[in-house]
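The protein record passed on below.

***
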Amino acid sequence: MTWTDRLNADPLPWLLEEDTPAVRAAALRCLLDRPADDPEVVDARAAAMTTGPIAAILAEQDEAGWWVKPGPGYAPKYTGTVWSLIFLDQLGADPADERVQRACAYVLRWCPTSSGGLGSSGSHVEARPAPSSVAHCLNGNLLRALIGFGHLDDAEVQAAISWAARSILGGPDAPRFYATATSGPVFACGANEGKPCAWGAVKTVRALGRIPRERRCDEVVAALAASVEFLLSRDPAVADYPMGWGNTKPSGSWFKLGFPSGYVADVLQVLEALAEAGELGDPRTAHALDWVLAQQDAQGRWRNRYAYNRKTWGDIEKQGAPSKWVTLRACTVLRAAA
């Protein structure tokens, strides 16, 4: 049985339609294994840069590299600088585009903190955030984008990778834990009453998992192993990870598959993280994979139940409607699990 045999119908012709070139380019790469220089991939990516959500985001960028206002760019959600860069990465923007690189340069200048992690601040002042503002969710999201856009070897990116690994592993070399946002050992986070934050874990695994295997130092390998064990310490389909502030039921956001993705994670993104870590073969993922399969409709499509409508630079998809992006996410994971 192949992974497509588990679908109710074949969504690939729909994903390859030319009217959504960003999805088409990603589907060619992720589902058909086309290389980056394949003519169809090149054409689709070029079209995606001039139409749709990628073009809408880039049209709002200031010539200096920021969106909305200068500064570290955490606010406003989800149109500020860091969110625009994160979403450009998720949409598959071309790393060679000068505007994308201008944004990377701006973030690398104003988001690093003295601890090495990438921090959050909504200030309009061009000043680096305090180390107490670093959290695994944003650090992971930005790291993933910056690595994807070709900045793995930048000193600031290497420092943020080290911050993530040392924070996860704890010990005498760990960054100082602040009771505000900064994540401590095994994802302890002030925003979760000091308990481990699974959303932060998902974002961090997706960032560290983007580092080529041959480039992962021992510290990163150990941090990934600890992160995977944390994510699989609960059934991802139940998502009853540690919850602070008196919460006893998992956030409903876990069960609303969506696109794009900010600091919130869903069940499917846990599987995406585990896939990039090479751990989808673990039997503890079986229930979550079955849960994802159960969300498809009769046409083998998944709906976007968390679309960030009216929050981004133009709506990417309709809330609650069949989603090419969520379907692409689900198919990519199911293919990796086969």
The chain is about 40% helix and 0% strand. The chain has a mean pLDDT of 97. The longest strand covers residues 302-303. The radius of gyration is 19 Å.
